[in-house]
Specification:
It is a single chain. The chain is mostly helical and 189 residues long. The protein folds into two domains: 50 residues, Arc Repressor Mutant, subunit A; 137 residues, Tetracycline Repressor, domain 2 (Orthogonal Bundle), CATH 1.10.357.10. The chain contains nine helices and no strands. Helix 1 crosses helix 2, helix 5 runs antiparallel to helix 7 and helix 5 packs antiparallel against helix 9. The chain starts with a helix and ends with a helix.
């Protein structure tokens, strides 16, 4: 399927804004920088995204969809059993944290950058968190974990901690500590 010129321009804006927001932060990137980097006219950007908040929201929705698909596919390819896949989540995350372009979790970053908890980008982060929790809860259920709901909440603490550790220390090894803790949790429940 061939993308229309309008769709191609919209995609170029989304990809450029996504890269810039992740590298520099949403608050540090202006619309003019997105326009200059994406090579589109100001009018084109505003036709697709009437405000910077609309652009931030679309970027976050786009990133969330891409990230969740990547995560689930990468985890699925790592293990035959649900238990192996649960443990592999932190191997997948460690690879992400080790990427030289890693600048922290973009969803945590946005929540921290945008102080307004009613901003739609916050909702995207909350929805992604819930999607991860649901995915982990399903795997935990398949793995025979006794309380998959509590386990999935504990998992979110581990992934958040590992992500922050990787960001603060610029070192991906926190994922292995989280994996060890996850193993203990799985064996306990």
């Amino acid at each position: 399927m061939v993308m229309s010129e309008s769709s191609a321009a919209r995609q170029q804006i989304l990809e450029t804004a996504s890269r810039l927001f992740y590298q520099k932060g949403t608050q540090n990137v202006g619309i003019n920088e997105v326009i200059a980097e994406s090579g589109v006219a100001k009018r084109t950007l505003y036709r697709h995204f009437p405000s910077k908040d609309d652009l931030i929201l679309e970027v976050m929705q786009h990133r969330a969809s891409q990230w969740l698909t990547w995560f689930e596919e990468a985890v699925s390819s790592k293990g035959g059993t649900a238990k192996e896949r649960l443990l592999a989540t932190f191997d997948v995350l460690q690879n992400w944290y080790a990427n030289p372009d890693f600048r922290g979790c973009p969803f945590i970053n946005v929540v921290l950058e945008i102080a307004d908890a009613t901003h739609p980008a916050h909702q995207v982060s909350i929805q992604l968190r819930e999607s991860i929790r649901t995915y982990i809860m399903q795997l935990a259920s398949e793995a025979g974990v006794k309380d998959p709901v509590s386990f999935s909440q504990q998992y979110l603490l581990l992934i958040g901690g590992a992500s922050l550790m990787a960001t603060i220390e610029a070192n991906p090894t926190g994922a292995q500590y989280a994996k060890q803790t996850l193993s203990v949790l799985m064996d306990a429940g």
